[in-house]
Design brief:
By secondary structure, the protein is mainly β. It has one domain. Helices cover about 10% and strands about 40% of the residues. A 7-stranded antiparallel β-sheet has the order 1-2-3-4-5-6-7. Strand 4 and strand 5 form a beta hairpin. Bound molecules: zinc ion. Zinc ion binds next to loops.
């Protein structure tokens, strides 16, 4: 999956920042944080154009987040801001999220969580 330039929800250019992790190397993050949505796309120095991880906040009030890990082929559900502390509640079978309709995707993810 290619890293999008525009936010799939509001169609505005996403903020880009780079960070370095001693074990992972250079990471690029494109993110859009608004009052009603919060989504981040991560890529790795091996290929900055290809998505390696996506973080979506499914519920801004309860801070429920989902991450799609394209390297591990896993979908993690978190109730934590920092995915690196491994505080995932659970995992669900991997699927590639469809961003053609962001609101539908969020509804689908919320439905998944209800049935956990
Ligand atoms: Zn946005």
């Amino acid at each position: 999956m290619k890293i999008p330039i525009l936010c799939p929800k509001c169609n505005k250019p996403m903020l880009t920042h780079f960070s370095y992790h001693p074990t992972d190397g250079h990471i690029c993050c494109k993110t859009c944080k608004q009052y009603n949505h919060d989504v981040s796309f991560f890529s790795h120095e091996k290929d900055y154009d290809t998505v390696h991880l996506i973080m979506i906040t499914v519920n801004l009030t309860s801070q429920l987040h989902i991450s799609f890990d394209f390297w591990q082929n896993k979908v993690f559900i978190y109730q934590e801001l920092d995915p690196k502390n491994n505080a995932s509640l659970t995992t669900i079978p991997f699927f590639e999220p469809d961003f053609s309709n962001y609101d539908d995707l969020i509804k689908k993810l919320q439905t998944y969580i209800v049935f956990l």
